[in-house]
Amino acid sequence: MLTKRIIPCLDIRDKKVTKGVKFKNNIVLGDPVELASKYYDEGCDELVFYDITASAEGRPIDIEMVQEVAHAIRIPFSVGGGISNIEDMSRVLLAGAEKVSVNSLAVKNPDIIAEGAKAFGSQCIVLGMDPIAVDKPECPSGYEITVRGFREYTGIDALEWAKKAVDLGIGEIVVNSVDADGTRNGFEIGLTRMIAENVSVPVVASGGGGCSAHLAKVFTDAHADAAIIAGMIHTGEYTIPQIKNELVELGIPIRQKW
User: Fold this and answer.
1) In whole angstroms, what is the distance from residue 121 CA to residue 251 CA?
2) Could you tell me the domains of the chain?
3) What is the pLDDT at residue 169?
4) What is the DSSP string of 19-85?
5) Is 130 a known active-site residue?
6) Is 251 exposed, middle or buried (0-12, 13-18, 19+ CB in 10 A)?
7) CB contact burial 87-126 (16+ within 10 A = b; e otherwise)
8) pLDDT tens-digit profile of 85-144?
9) What span, in angstroms and rounded, lies between the C-alpha atoms of 130 and 165?
10) pLDDT value at position 24?
11) Are 170 and 125 in contact (CB under 8 A)?
């Protein structure tokens, strides 16, 4: 049985890790390199690094920060935010990241997925999606894709977008529920399960993780391959070893510390 992955998320703004609720009221939580090193030492499986204001501000991703994180850890990590073209993808990968996450860019230019997969391999290209629950005829799944940090609604149905991205060559999908983001009340199970059951690539649950039981539920009930966590570890309430031990007790297949 494949083990489930635990992935801390570092949302970066002005070179600091921040965290908010539903993309709002972010507070500063620490230095990204220090936190990356800490979670690496504790035995996390991967890391995610998002330059959360780069796309909205129309600037490139902070490559120096990517390089610093790459030098501090020896596990795969994914980088998103401020990616505008194939050249940006190349710079991120050459800086030490294993994966590039595209979100707003992919919605604007879906062909970038196929171009990235052809240039670097599907395993390097991750689709980040920020769906929100809606009641609109153009979104039969019940979820609409938003972009630019939940600043814009797109009219695109979340499930159809996930399927299209897979057809274009995406290697993994991160499903970040806007409604659950930062609430720590649990992942959005129905949304995650809907995507996971309808695509052939790994699905990563994001948004709402507050305790180990939430992770266990999204793994078993929603068939997520991995879960992104942030607030529950950034605050010090949980550690990676504690989460992994509790998941093992709950019967979840987890890779113990390397």
Assistant:
1) 33
2) 5-249 (3.20.20.70)
3) 98
4) EEETTEEEEEEE-HHHHHHHHHHHT-S-EEEEETTHHHHT----HHHHHHHHHH--S-EEEESS--S
5) yes
6) exposed
7) ebbebbbebbbbbbbbbbbbbeebebbbbbbeebebebbb
8) 999 999 999 999 999 999 989 999 999 999 999 999 999 999 999 999 999 999 999 999
9) 14
10) 53
11) yes
CA pair distance 112, 158, nearest whole angstrom: 18
Identified catalytic residue from 11, 45, 51, 157:
11
Whether 157 sits among the annotated catalytic residues: the reply is: no
Structure tokens at 51: 């330059």
Please report where in the chains the tokens 């395993």 appear, as a residue: 123
Catalytic annotation, pick one of 62, 88, 130, 181: 130
At which residue do the structure tokens 């507050």 appear? 210
- Type of residue numbered 92: V
CA 89 – CA 80 distance, rounded (Å)? 9
List all residues 6 or more positions away from 175 whose beta carbon is below 8 Å from its beta carbon. Answer: 129, 131, 162, 191, 192, 195, 203, 204, 205, 206, 207
Identify the residue with better confidence: 123 or 30: 123
Check residue 159 and give its pLDDT.
Answer: 98
Helices (H), the chain: 32-42, 54-57, 63-72, 86-94, 104-108, 111-120, 158-168, 189-196, 212-220, 231-234, 240-249
Quote the CA–CA distance of 3 and 55 in Å, as a whole number: 33
Query: Tokens 């230095």 identify what position?
Result: 31
Amino acid at 23: F
Asked if the model's pLDDT at residue 13 lies above 70, the reply is: yes
